[in-house]
Amino acid sequence: MGLRSALSEKEYESPPGKRLKGENGWTESSNPLYNFDSFSTALEDLKNVLYSHKERGINAVVSVAGWAQFSEGYREVVEPYRQEIQNKEIVIIFADTADKQLMYLKDGLAHTNVGQNPFEMGKQAIMTLYKLANKKSVKEIQYIPMTYCNPQNYQTCTKK
């Protein structure tokens, strides 16, 4: 729902939001692919999408976690599409910014990785608990900065 909200610039009242059908130029070619935290399933799904992306009119893949990139076979699956990736005929975006994933950016096998900030998440959780324990007001929603990595900044994007 968060991804759909960001792409469409709309807020949805209940998950998973509405499938995108042209909002802000974004259209979902299929329902989301669920892998139930299986790295191998995620990699197989990515392989199938890449294989058929031209005939299905798919020009972007957005993964809300790094499952496929954490699989041992990611490089072998994506490598045949390196030129299409470099030409942005297919754009590949993943969540998470582990060192292994940053090497895929360096090697031109993805476009962007968006990472969470677990340190700041923990800090804000403790600060919120402290305020609540001391009967102070807290914000209903706490926004935590994200890390945005790409082939140009992969060496420094996760450094403070």
From TrEMBL:
Pfam families assigned: Peripla_BP_4
InterPro entries named in the record: Peripla_BP_I, SBP_2_dom
Region (Disordered): 1-25
Domain Periplasmic binding protein residue range list: 32-136
Name used for this protein in its record: Autoinducer 2-binding periplasmic protein LuxP
